[in-house]
Specification:
This protein is 10% helix and 26% strand. The protein is mainly beta.
Length: 215
């Protein structure tokens, strides 16, 4: 699957104060573009539009990004744990080596998004829409992806241990190179129809249906 990479600014303006940047953009009504942001501290970045910019080595845990839009944006080496990204729109974005533990993406749309080496433990993506999303070397353990939709989600070498996929179709996803032990699905295992798993994973999934395997 080919992901459309973000178109990033060649010479970005440096900024170290996310709160001041947000205030200035709200006052002018402009979107936030052409910026390389490196900022610390929780702040309110909700309802803003981020275009062709870079978040680099930011420590923004518990910040509010809800109802914001991101297009052609790179998050690199950022701590975004417990941030609120609910009802956001992401297009042509990349998360690289970011901490997203407990982050909320409820109701958000992710299109042409790549995640590389990110920690997504306990993240919530309920009722999210994923389209052309790739993930490599990410930890999705105990993530909640319930009642969501996905098309062309491609995980590689990712950990989905104890993830919740209740009422989310996993059709077309290849989990054979990932860990999916202890996942939660409906008793009918309908979410797994059309997904690809390894033989070992299949034997473990059979146990979810209450089938006993003779040793």
């Amino acid at each position: 699957m080919k992901i459309t990479e973000p178109s990033l600014p060649i010479a970005a303006e440096l900024c170290s104060d996310a709160t001041a940047l947000a205030a200035a953009c709200r006052s002018s009504g402009d979107d936030i573009s052409g910026i390389k942001l490196s900022s610390d501290g929780s702040c309110d970045l909700s309802g803003l539009e981020f275009f062709r910019m870079i978040f680099e080595n930011c420590h923004l845990s518990k910040s509010d990004f809800s109802r914001s839009a991101f297009a052609d944006v790179l998050f690199s080496g950022c701590d975004l744990s417990n941030c609120d990204f609910s009802d956001c729109y992401f297009s042509r974005c990349r998360f690289s080596d970011c901490r997203l533990t407990g982050a909320q993406f409820t109701g958000s749309t992710l299109k042409n998004v790549s995640l590389l080496g990110c920690g997504m433990q306990y993240a919530v993506l309920n009722r999210a829409k994923l389209s052309s999303v790739s993930a490599e070397g990410c930890d999705f353990s105990r993530v909640s992806l319930s009642e969501s939709s996905q098309q062309d989600f491609s995980p590689k070498s990712c950990n989905f241990s104890s993830a919740n996929f209740f009422k989310t179709s996993l059709r077309g996803i290849d989990f054979s190179l990932c860990s999916i032990d202890g996942i939660s699905v409906s008793s009918e295992l309908s979410e797994l129809r059309g997904a690809t798993v390894s033989r070992w994973q299949a034997s473990e999934l059979i146990r979810l249906a209450g089938v006993k395997i003779s040793e």
